[in-house]
Design brief:
The protein has helices spanning about 25-40, 45-65, 75-95, 110-135, 140-155. The chain has about 160 residues and is mainly alpha-helical. It has one domain (about 20-155). Helix 2 (about 45-65) packs parallel to helix 4, helix 3 (about 75-95) runs antiparallel to helix 4 (about 110-135) and helix 4 (about 110-135) runs antiparallel to helix 5. It starts with about 20 loop residues before the first helix and ends in a 7-residue tail after the last helix. Residues about 1-15 and about 155-160 have low confidence and may be disordered.
Length: about 160
């Protein structure tokens, strides 16, 4: 007597995780960024290469927090922002400059070389905050830090 049964809505199947958000995919993207940094090490100031690698090492530690369970969605957003946008954009912007201009003082009083290091250092501090929040499983801190990073590093905040 199936005619008299109520049609019960079946729950939607669980959405599959975006493979780009998996720790393995994040590690692959991070590996590509490390390769980009290493490939351009001769064109980047030495201290900026070291600082950029400090950022990538910290991001790897964030990804490694997933060994204790799933990586928090806000940590994923921050990691993807750093790896796919903020750090590579910062480096590419510098690399696009005429080499004769990297030591020239800009209206800000800083040289592009100094600004590059400042930006990477700020990014490292942000990544360290994401790591601390991920280790503490502090979702509120991850949201706040992700918002800060997005505000700080999207658009043309670079004064190169």
């Amino acid at each position: 007597m199936a005619l008299f049964r109520r049609h019960e809505a079946r729950p939607a199947p669980p959405a599959e995780d975006d493979p780009a958000d998996s720790p393995a995919a994040l590690l692959r993207a991070l590996g590509q960024l490390v390769g980009f940094i290493n490939q351009n090490a001769g064109r980047l100031p030495g201290e900026s290469v070291v600082a950029a690698r400090r950022v990538t090492d910290t991001v790897r530690e964030v990804i490694d927090t997933s060994n204790d369970g799933e990586l928090d969605v806000y940590a994923i957003i921050s990691v993807k922002g750093i790896v796919n946008d903020y750090l590579p954009t910062t480096l590419r912007t510098y690399l696009a400059l005429d080499p004769q201009l990297v030591d020239a003082r800009r209206p800000s009083g800083r040289t592009p070389k100094e600004s590059l290091l400042d930006q990477i250092t700020s990014l490292w501090a942000g990544a360290a905050d994401v790591l601390a929040a991920a280790q503490a499983k502090d979702a509120d801190a991850l949201v706040s830090q992700g918002t800060f990073l997005q505000t700080k590093f999207t658009g043309s905040d670079l004064d190169l």
